[in-house]
Amino acid sequence: MELADAISRRQSVRRFTPQPVPDTIITQLLEAAALAPSAHGRQPWRFVVIAPGAGRHTLVAAMDAEWSVQLAADGTTVEQIDARRAASATRINDAPALIMPCLDTTLLDVYPDAARQQAEYTMAVQSIGCAIQNILLRAVDLGYDAGWMCAPVFCGATVQRACDLPATIVPQALIPIGVMAAPPKRRPKRSGADLRIDR
Ligand SMILES: Cc1cc2nc3c(=O)[nH]c(=O)nc-3n(C[C@H](O)[C@H](O)[C@H](O)COP(=O)(O)O)c2cc1C
User: Which of 24, 99, 104, 171 gives the lowest tally of CB atoms within 10 Å of its CB?
Assistant: First the structure.
């Protein structure tokens, strides 16, 4: 597939058919991630491939418990909380394949001041965004679709415990992958010309 086609066909898919994703596809997605640019060329990422089944259910239950507390603190009604929890759990549990991109913070440079340390962290997050986009585009190229869930960012320590990860491996997203069952609702995109600022 032409790159321009993959870019324009990619969309955040939230419902997949049950068709499994072969492990050879996951391997190719991670090879695409590995080729992404990264600050200092440091490749500060690891990708947790979360198989369907018990481990995934444990992760969902752990995130769900923390999210419920957060939503209740926001003043969300019990009915809304239950609906959002159920939808999120279904998306994660039913995803034919699930990749969790993580930052490996042992690979970040260490600075003596907080401002530069924050800049280093920002660059690492920018880098992993590039790696994730490579996964999303390669998935389309290989005939699959993918989505993006930010939930782990909001409960990193809980996810680390549920997945038995060290504190240095910081979860950044969940990427469900499969074959699209229903097209997502999407906001219209602004044109490139619309985004341009000339000086
Ligand atoms: C950092 C980031 C976090 C996102 N988190 C979520 C999420 O938690 N749930 C979700 O359904 N989509 C999530 N998305 C996908 C966006 O909703 C989606 O990219 C946006 O609506 C534009 O749609 P498109 O990807 O189909 O072009 C996220 C995307 C990014 C880049």
Answer: 24
